[in-house]
């Protein structure tokens, strides 16, 4: 299958209560930095308050955060 998907699935199966920091770190670890076919964005959805954090182009130190109010 897909190594990236397998890594994510195994982590989530072993850690059902993943923190935001762990989730974003995991997405960074499985991202692919190949021009033209790499990871374009990574998202962590916060289901408790319907917000989302998005990272673009592997810049994990530059997170865009959106809340439900941003979509009205």
Structure, explained:
This protein has helices spanning 3-14, 20-30, and strands spanning 41-46, 51-56, 63-66. With 72 residues, it is α+β, with helices and mostly antiparallel strands. It has one domain (3-71). It has a three-stranded antiparallel beta sheet with strand order 1-2-3, covered by helices on one side. Strand 1 and strand 2 (51-56) form a beta hairpin. The radius of gyration is 13 Å and the shape is flat. The chain starts with a helix and ends in a 6-residue tail after the last strand. The model has no long low-confidence stretch (mean pLDDT 90).
Number of domains: 1
Give start-end ranges of low-pLDDT stretches: none
| Strands, total number | 3
The helix/strand class is alpha+beta
Strand count, sense and barrel status of the largest sheet are: 3 strands, antiparallel
Task: Give the topology string: H per helix, E per strand.
Answer: HHEEE
What overall form do the CA principal axes indicate?
flat
Ends apart, CA distance between termini: 39 Å
Detail the topology: elements first, then pairings:
Blueprint: H1 3-14, H2 20-30, E1 41-46, E2 51-56, E3 63-66
Antiparallel strand pairs: 1-2, 2-3
Primary descriptors:
3 strands, alpha+beta, 72 residues, flat, 3-stranded antiparallel sheet
Brief summary of the model shown:
The chain has helices at 3-14, 20-30; strands at 41-46, 51-56, 63-66. By secondary structure, it is an alpha+beta fold. The protein has one domain (3-71).
């Amino acid at each position: 299958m897909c190594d990236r998907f397998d890594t994510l699935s195994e982590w989530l199966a072993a850690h059902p209560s993943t923190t935001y920091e762990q989730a974003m770190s995991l997405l960074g670890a499985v991202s692919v930095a190949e021009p033209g076919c790499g990871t374009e964005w990574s998202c962590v959805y916060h289901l408790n308050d319907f917000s989302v954090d998005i990272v673009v182009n592997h810049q994990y130190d530059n997170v865009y955060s959106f809340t439900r109010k941003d979509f009205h």
